[in-house]
């Protein structure tokens, strides 16, 4: 592990409409590489990410680069250098691809410098061609590219990426994983992912959540090699091919 | 034939006024989920202050009218921005309370206007041209109708350009779709809130001064009487849709004029029936996104 | 359960005592300076108190909509006005005596509420508020237009007393109208209480909290809301008919949107979701409205500089400002404040017994 963690989460609790969905999770995200958050459906992985950003009501400690941010507004936290790629992409359907990216550009030195723009263009050539197309008319995979590009345009201290391969065709899953691997060279990533092949390829560490609590942390290899443990903690078999669960891309 | 032309022209003029009120309501609702009951008060205040400014330069002159329109728009914008900052923002995300505050503000301000300017309508002095008519296809169309249509078209183009070509416009369009995601991109969406209030208030203030020219009077209840039709327009057009508001403004106003003439003054009732019909067929309005 | 019984006793006894006291007021000579214009037995005082009771009953019916089912209607005045104008017109145009006439108007009010509710409830939240407002506005337009000389337009309509029992007519009989108003308030309160504790009431509260969940467990939110809407409207119609007798006339102001807004103000002042809050809010509002109106015309205010005189001479300005301040700084209204005060004194905060 390299030095101090970029994100420290201590005893984080989150509520949606008054109902507690995350019950005091504690974990660190080291300053490099990919940390995967694993767990069955509905155990509070997405809520944990949203609570870190202050998008839902939360209590507990969240430290970004050694600074407490748990009392700050979402937009302030993000401007400290957090890139968020939400579940289900959440691109602005009525805006063009170019407008989606323009909106995401945080400006100044932390925003879209020519170098970062070139990097994003190189990663997603498809988006350059479709710059004037409305995001709502893109395929699920293309929307995911927009969502990733929005985060990668800016200079971030950390990326929070929520189920980027959900519902994508296997070929697109590979492209998304590639883009994430490229991004991980420069910025640490906290990744929520159900597809264990993607986790295996990208993640160095895992945090396993069950029923709103952290039940396991450790190196990714160690967990994924232990089929019994994977079965017990995640309710799936590690060997299971990813595309079996994938919905057709057109579903979204 | 000439009667029909006249009704269509006056309908368009009235529709222009509706649109000036409804555009702000729709934008504010679309972005913030707030039903702004105080919108009528922005209009009334804009009308009184705008007229006072115009009269100071010269009642019944073009210079006075132009200054009045500008001051009315500025007054509406300032009142609206102050309302957003002082009353709406402290109740962030609590939509019911936000509506209640605007209800209280509207009750209090109408009473205050009555106290300051008296409860009864006061006549206004118009320029000679605005007080007369122009013949179009045999119909003597009041010139105020042209002014209203012109102003509404200008405001529509202005707002559309603002939404399309400025960064804040981009933020507002995105915010109408998904406000949480806009903040998750590091944008303080609250500044956009103040801005839409100001823009809506400016349109209402402008509409206030224009309404006094059409009606030939100004009264503390000017806003309230237009507000209800603006509400109907907003629902019919689809809450949050600017184009919907524009189309519905014209449809509602023209229908109202036609029914008032051909169906024994039943315009107001026909409009409510139209509302009921739209709700039965398309609850999200003409151009609203399905809920 | 025993604690419910103790609760009923601790709450019920003072309530019964208050009721007896209120019922005896027309026979007593108690001066309430600053609140009532004279001794309690005088017609002026009784008229004001009766107005308070009817307003409170109307606020209770609105509480059913807004507090219980979470339906923010801006058109509740429509059903109140339907009661007032309906009865006034039937008495004016026919020879039907009071009670059958009232029954007829009630049926009409229910039918009206059913149709309007069925349409309005197709939308929710803010749209619902606007749509109910539009319908009420249509009612207001009808009343003001005076179609076929039915409603008397801006002038309003005087009560035709032929079909009304003599005991309910004239200033000398104000105490009878006072008792009638008190009876209406008690009856409406009991009906509201009964609805709140019924299955439909629990369902309505559940719909307010989470409509999706109600649908998942097999409930029918639309139907539940429609039932509450019609019940609240019927109560408003009944109160409206009593109001007609008390004021011995119908005035178009009772059909305006502003009138519904004042109901909203009362319920929020008292505390949304609290029955007693609605009653207290309505009584306080009515008394303040009266007293502030007198303050406005007093010599003390007339002597003030314009900056102070103008706002002080507008009761609605003061009430509206109060309302804004309550929404901003006193969440839960008076009932909420009382609860917090009780909690600070170390008692368990009193919740509405379910």
Give your account of this protein's structure.
- The complex is a heterotrimer of chains A (252), B (291) and C (354).
- Chain A has helices at 45-52, 74-79, 97-104, 114-123, 125-129, 140-152, 170-184, 196-202, 220-224, 227-234; strands at residues 7-16, 19-29, 34-38, 57-64, 67-68, 82-85, 158-162, 189-192, 203-210, 213-219.
- By secondary structure, chain A is an alpha/beta fold.
- Chain A has two domains: 1-81 and 157-164 and 179-240, P-loop containing nucleotide triphosphate hydrolases (Rossmann fold), CATH 3.40.50.300; 89-155, no CATH class.
- Chain A has a six-stranded mixed β-sheet with strand order 6-7-8-3-9-10, sandwiched between helices. A four-stranded antiparallel β-sheet of chain A has the order 2-1-4-5, covered by helices on one side.
- In chain A, a hairpin with a 2-residue loop joins strand 1 (7-16) and strand 2.
- In chain A, helix 6 (140-152) packs parallel to helix 7 (170-184).
- Chain A is globular, with a radius of gyration of 17 Å.
- Chain B has 291 residues and is mainly α.
- Helix content of chain B is 75%, strand content 4%.
- In chain B, strand 2 and strand 3 form a beta hairpin.
- In chain B, helix 1 (2-32) packs across helix 9.
- Chain B is globular, with a radius of gyration of 19 Å.
- The termini of chain B are far apart.
- The termini of chain C are close together.
- Chain C has a single domain (28-344), classed as ABC transporter involved in vitamin B12 uptake, BtuC (Orthogonal Bundle), CATH 1.10.3470.
- A two-stranded antiparallel ribbon of chain C has the order 1-2.
- Chains in contact: A-B, B-C.
- The interface between B and C is large, with 44 and 43 residues.
Write a short abstract of this structure.
The complex is a heterotrimer of chains A (252), B (291) and C (354). Chain B is mainly alpha-helical.
Structural class of chain B: mainly alpha
Distance from N terminus to C terminus of chain B (CA atoms, Å) equals 42 Å
The main β sheet of chain B shows up as: 2 strands, antiparallel
Mean residue pLDDT of chain A: 86
- Strand portion of chain B: under 5%
Domain count of chain B: the total is 1
H and E string of chain A: EEEHEEHEHHHHEHEHEEHH
The ordered H/E elements of chain B are HHHHEEEHHHHEHHH
**Secondary-structure arrangement, i.e. CATH architecture of the largest domain in chain A:** 3-Layer(aba) Sandwich
Principal-axes geometry of chain A comes out as: globular
Strand order of the largest sheet of chain B: 1-4
Q: How many angstroms separate the termini of chain A? A: 38 Å
**Share of helical residues of chain A:** 25-40%
Shape of chain B: globular
**Order of strands across the main sheet of chain A:** 6-7-8-3-9-10
Q: Describe the largest sheet of chain A.
A: 6 strands, mixed
- What class, by secondary structure content of chain A? alpha/beta
Helicity level of chain B: over 70%
Transmembrane segments (chain C): 45-66, 73-91, 97-116, 123-143, 177-195, 222-243, 263-288, 295-312, 318-338
Organism (chain C): Promicromonospora citrea
Pfam families (chain C): BPD_transp_2
Keywords (chain C): Cell membrane, Membrane, Transmembrane, Transmembrane helix
């Amino acid at each position: 592990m390299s030095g101090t963690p970029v994100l420290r989460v201590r005893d984080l609790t989150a509520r949606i409409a008054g109902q507690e969905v995350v019950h005091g999770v504690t974990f660190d995200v080291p300053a490099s590489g990919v940390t995967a958050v694993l767990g069955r459906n509905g155990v509070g992985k997405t809520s944990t990410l949203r609570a870190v950003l202050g998008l839902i009501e939360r209590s507990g400690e969240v430290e970004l680069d050694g600074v407490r941010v748990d009392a700050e507004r979402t937009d302030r936290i993000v401007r400290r250098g957090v890139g968020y790629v939400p579940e289900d992409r959440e691109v602005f359907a009525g805006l063009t691809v170019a407008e989606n990216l323009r909106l995401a550009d945080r400006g100044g030195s932390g925003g879209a410098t020519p170098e970062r723009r070139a990097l994003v263009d190189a990663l997603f050539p498809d988006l350059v061609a479709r710059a004037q197309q409305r995001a709502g008319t893109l395929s699920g995979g293309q929307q995911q590219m927009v969502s990733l590009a929005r985060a990668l345009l800016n200079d971030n201290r950390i990326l929070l990426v929520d189920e980027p391969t959900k519902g994508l065709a296997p070929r697109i899953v590979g492209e998304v994983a590639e883009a994430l691997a490229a991004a991980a060279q420069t910025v640490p990533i906290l990744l929520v992912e159900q597809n264990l092949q993607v986790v295996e390829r990208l993640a160095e560490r895992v945090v396993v959540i069950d029923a709103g609590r952290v039940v396991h942390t450790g190196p990714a290899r160690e967990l994924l090699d232990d089929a019994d443990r994977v079965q017990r903690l995640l309710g799936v078999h590690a060997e299971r091919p990813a595309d079996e669960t994938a919905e057709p891309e057109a579903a979204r | 034939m000439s009667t029909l032309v006249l009704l269509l022209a006056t309908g368009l003029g009235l529709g222009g006024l509706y649109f000036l009120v409804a555009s702000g309501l729709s934008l504010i609702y679309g972005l913030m989920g707030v039903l702004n009951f105080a919108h009528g008060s922005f209009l009334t205040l804009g009308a009184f202050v705008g007229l006072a400014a115009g009269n100071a330069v010269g009642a019944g002159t073009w210079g006075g009218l132009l200054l009045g329109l500008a001051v009315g728009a500025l007054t509406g914008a300032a009142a609206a921005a102050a309302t957003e900052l002082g009353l709406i923002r402290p109740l962030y995300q609590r939509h019911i309370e936000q509506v209640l505050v605007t209800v209280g503000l509207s009750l209090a301000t109408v009473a205050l206007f009555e106290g300051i300017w008296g409860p009864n309508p006061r006549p206004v002095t118009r320029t000679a041209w605005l007080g007369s008519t122009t013949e179009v296809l045999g119909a003597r169309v009041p010139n105020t109708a042209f002014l209203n249509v012109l102003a509404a078209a200008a405001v529509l183009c202005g707002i559309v350009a603002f939404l399309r070509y400025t960064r804040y416009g981009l933020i507002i369009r995105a915010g109408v779709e998904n406000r949480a995601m806009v903040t998750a991109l590091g944008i303080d969406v609250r500044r956009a809130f103040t801005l839409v209030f100001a823009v809506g208030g400016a349109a209402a203030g402008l509409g206030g001064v224009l309404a006094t020219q059409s009606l030939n009077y100004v009264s503390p209840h000017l806003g309230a009487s237009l507000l209800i039709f603006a509400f109907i327009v907003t629902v019919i057009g689809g809450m949050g849709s600017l184009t919907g508001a524009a189309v519905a403004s014209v449809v509602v106003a023209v229908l109202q004029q036609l029914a008032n003439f051909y169906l024994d003054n039943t315009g107001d009732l026909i409009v409510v029936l139209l509302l009921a019909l739209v709700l039965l067929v398309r609850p999200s309005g003409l151009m609203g996104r399905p809920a | 359960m025993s604690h419910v019984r103790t609760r009923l006793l601790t709450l019920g006894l003072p309530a019964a005592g208050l009721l007896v006291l209120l019922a005896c007021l027309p026979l007593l000579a108690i001066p309430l300076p600053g609140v009532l214009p004279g001794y309690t037995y005088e017609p002026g005082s009784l008229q004001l108190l009766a107005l308070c009771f009817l307003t409170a009953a109307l606020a209770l019916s609105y509480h059913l909509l807004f507090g219980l089912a979470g339906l923010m209607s801006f058109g509740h005045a429509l059903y109140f006005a339907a009661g007032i104008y309906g009865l006034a017109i039937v008495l004016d145009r026919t020879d039907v005596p009071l009670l059958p006439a009232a029954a007829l108007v009630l049926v009409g009010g229910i039918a009206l509420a059913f149709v309007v509710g069925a349409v309005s409830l197709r939308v929710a939240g803010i749209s619902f508020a606007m749509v109910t407002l539009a319908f009420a506005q249509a009612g207001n337009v009808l009343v003001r237009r005076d179609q076929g000389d039915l409603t008397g337009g801006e002038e309003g309509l005087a009560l035709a007393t032929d079909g009304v029992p003599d005991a309910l007519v004239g200033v000398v009989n104000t105490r009878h109208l006072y008792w009638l108003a008190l009876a209406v308030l008690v009856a409406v309160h009991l009906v509201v209480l009964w609805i709140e504790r019924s299955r439909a009431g629990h369902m309505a509260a559940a719909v307010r909290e989470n409509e999706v969940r109600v649908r998942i467990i097999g409930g029918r939110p639309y139907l539940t809301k429609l039932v509450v809407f019609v019940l609240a409207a019927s109560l408003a119609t009944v109160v409206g008919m009593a109001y007609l007798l008390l004021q011995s006339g119908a005035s178009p102001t009772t059909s305006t949107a502003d009138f519904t807004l004042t109901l909203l103000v009362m319920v929020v002042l008292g505390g949304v979701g609290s029955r007693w809050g609605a009653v207290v809010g309505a009584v306080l509002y009515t008394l303040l409205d009266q007293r502030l109106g007198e303050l406005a015309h007093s010599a003390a205010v007339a002597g003030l500089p314009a900056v102070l005189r103008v706002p002080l001479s507008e009761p609605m300005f003061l009430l509206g400002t109060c309302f804004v301040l309550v929404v901003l700084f006193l969440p839960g209204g008076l009932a909420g404040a009382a609860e917090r005060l009780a909690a600070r004194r170390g008692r368990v905060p009193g919740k509405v017994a379910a």
